[in-house]
Amino acid sequence: MMKLIFLPIIFFLVVPLYRCTWDDDYKNVTQTVRKQLLQLAQVKETNYTAVLMQGSGSFVVESVLTTTVGEGDKILIITNGAYGERGIRARYARYANNNHLLRSRLKALGFNAYISEELQSPIITTFLFPYEGFSFEHFYGAMKKLGFVIYLGKLTDVDTFRIDNIGDIHEDDMTTLCKVIENYMAVMSNEG
Fold this sequence. Notes:
Elements: E1 3-4, H1 24-41, E2 48-49, H2 57-68, H3 88-107, E3 124-128, H4 136-145, E4 151-153, E5 160-164, H5 171-191
Parallel strand pairs: 1-2
Antiparallel strand pairs: 3-5, 4-5
């Protein structure tokens, strides 16, 4: 039986910005890190596995606690009271601005958002493919070469892709991404 191992280590994986969870380069780096963590713990890969958790710090803590703490177990959490209260309104405003900028600039290029603006959260924006025959793979490759990550939308019955508006992404970053997409579309229209 495979056992999960949780190491009491703060681990930061630094990879270039163009990597995302379904990208083959990223998956190869992830597998290497998982093997190295097991070597660090001095355990065999046949008996243990390492699971890298992505998400906010609170998500990772919650996932470990709900996995390792049993129904009758007790835990003590000591906090300084500042956790999670750092500029939530300012962050939300930045995300909303990123979302609005992205939606308006891409709409001008023929990319319609999957969800109407009044129902859209500012976290992730899903866009419909702009035209029949649009090659997401080509688009993804062009964006990746220039350091941007986009995700294929697999949650709908129609062809979509998603762009995150959150994290350490600011208006300048979103403006640059929009310019890159504008250039891509201009090149594609000249080739077509």
